[in-house]
Model the fold of this input.
Amino acid sequence: GQQLNQSPQSMFIQEGEDVSMNCTSSSIFNTWLWYKQDPGEGPVLLIALYKAGELTSNGRLTAQFGITRKDSFLNISASIPSDVGIYFCAGTYNAGNNRKLIWGLGTSLAVNP
Amino acid sequence: DVKVTQSSRYLVKRTGEKVFLECVQDMDHENMFWYRQDPGLGLRLIYFSYDVKMKEKGDIPEGYSVSREKKERFSLILESASTNQTSMYLCASRGVDRGRFFGPGTRLTVL
Done:
């Protein structure tokens, strides 16, 4: 079946550092979505990508839809303590006549002040 | 901003009890979803609904049912709760940009 690999699984960084995480799929995706989940809360949509090559920013966050349509990355610049949380990628792909959404397992980010 | 609310943040039930988890969204979204989230397994889709009184099975529907009597409300029902249904349950609705908006989650413990 369809697989979505997200890496790294966890990161521990110093405040001020830049962060990069990525997701790769086994086949072509139509959409890439990046979410952040704070402890005890539901995921919140950060960035949505709809076209191959698309590069979108949201404040200190930048995400790109890979040109092959099989990968996406999320960068966080100048990390701050409130960036702590779990970041999830998700993507949609065609499954027969339907469009399905699958999720990565998340990247847990810890920021040392 | 879209608001998705869930009836309880924490719930403790006994094995065999019938459990209702309620979700309400205030943005007139047609699509609503129920997921469960478990460590190492990520988010798994239980059921979804694309219209009132319509429902579709997700990836793990066994042991669950749903109800969508009104557009804004989507309920998840555990007919007879079991310990393996201890989990974080997340409701979501989908807007026009196809991103899902999540509620805060209900952490259910079945003893």
DSSP finds no helices and eleven strands in chain B.
